[in-house]
Specification:
Elements lengths: L9 E7 L26 H18 L2 E7 L9 H10 L4 E4 L7 H9 L2 E7 L4 H7 L4 H14 L3 E8 L7 H10 L4 E6 L18 H19 L6 E2 L5 H9 L23 E4 L4 E3 L8 E4 L5 H5 L2 H4 L23 H7 L17
Parallel strand pairs: 1-2, 1-8, 2-3, 3-4, 4-5, 5-6, 6-7
Antiparallel strand pairs: 8-9, 9-10
């Protein structure tokens, strides 16, 4: 790593190295609506992408940070080679995968090679979670949190919230806290077909219901935070900004400059996604956001391309552009896009704020 970048800000690459996976999750982008082929990068392609990302960071004076995922990345035949390469170049990374192949020995090795966090998913109570993923997944996931913690890796649990499991999230939080996961967060389900984003779908959540949900979760978080709780609650969904604004916990700074973006959705700002095909996406959760290919294009050129600029036209947001929270929130354009026929700038379907 270049010495002149030691104090630079990080740039995140969500890197899907394989589609191979032990599960067939009902809300997965790969399997939810069918998938013709399972793709895995070969080792030469992986090295090319790796150094392409390093070139990007050199050009923009950023530090690379990899979120290595799949599928389940540990199933890739060159998984350990990639981790060795990251270690050689002193590049930290998070692994986002399944619990099934984790052992005390290989988790310790992950840590030695620079793994910062290991993220797994819990998507409901045991019956619901195992219906989403596969039998035994719930118990195995909770059991492996201890191994991750003992290795010195930060254990992260994520939940995908939809109308099918929203009432179970308080119980999920209780289970995650009891297992001593170090970080917990949830994000909303992005519809993988037009029908799943409609009001008649079991997956749908109305704006009012979602606001009530955040109110309930906020109280649960506050209660745990007042105790000796080992879990940090990451308020990941950008609608938390709107919630906190209404609660008086977030105030728009007096020095906010018109035309500047200070927070909210990071699409087009500080991360990109690379799939096993090499395809580059502005956001993995936005199906229409392909902007290039990491096997053939320089990432730094893609970043400043017209296609990428198409995701930075903040005045196009049909609802958010009329809201004073535009520089700080913008909800989730991925959820909006998945619910509105691919329109990235459509209104977030769970945003309850009335704007003129």
């Amino acid at each position: 790593m270049a010495q002149n970048l030691k104090n630079a800000q990080y740039f995140a690459f969500q890197w899907h190295i394989t589609d191979e996976c032990d599960q067939r999750c009902k809300h997965c982008y790969i399997f939810a609506e069918g998938h013709p082929d399972l793709v895995t990068m070969n080792w030469e392609q992986m090295k090319h992408v790796f150094f392409n990302a390093l070139e990007f960071c050199e050009k923009f004076a950023r530090l690379p940070y990899f979120y290595i995922t799949g599928g389940d990345p540990i199933l890739h035949p060159h998984f350990w080679d990639l981790l060795e390469l990251c270690h050689e170049h002193e590049i930290p990374f998070t692994l986002m995968g399944n619990p099934f192949h984790l052992t005390a020995e290989n988790v310790r090795r992950m840590r030695e090679l620079g793994c910062d966090k290991y993220q797994m998913s819990i998507d409901g109570t045991e019956k619901t979670h195992d219906w989403f993923r596969k039998p035994g997944s719930f118990k195995t996931t909770l059991e492996k949190i201890r191994l991750i913690n003992e290795a010195g890796i930060t254990s992260v649990i994520m939940t995908t919230v939809s109308g099918t499991n929203i009432e179970e999230i308080p119980a999920v939080i209780d289970a995650v806290v009891a297992a001593e996961a170090q970080v917990y967060a949830f994000a909303r389900y992005v519809p993988t077909s037009d029908g799943k984003g409609k009001e008649k779908s079991d997956w749908y959540i109305s704006p009012e219901r979602y606001r009530d949900f955040l109110t309930k979760i906020d109280k649960i978080y506050a209660d745990y935070e007042s105790k000796d709780c080992k879990t940090y609650f990451n308020r990941k969904d950008h609608l938390w900004t709107l919630f906190d604004y209404e609660q008086g916990r977030f105030k728009i700074p007096d020095d906010t400059k018109e035309g500047m973006i200070y927070g909210g959705c990071n699409c087009g700002n500080c991360h990109i996604t690379i799939l096993p095909t090499g395809d580059i996406y502005a956001c993995r959760r936005v199906a229409s956001s392909r902007v290039g290919n990491a096997f053939t294009d320089h990432l730094f050129e893609v970043w400043t391309s017209a296609k990428m600029e198409g995701f930075r036209e903040y005045g196009k947001f049909s609802k958010c552009a009329k809201c004073e929270l535009l520089p700080y929130c913008r909800g989730c354009p991925a959820v909006a896009s998945g619910s509105n026929g691919g329109d990235f700038y459509a209104a977030d379907p769970q945003c309850w704020k009335m704007v003129g």
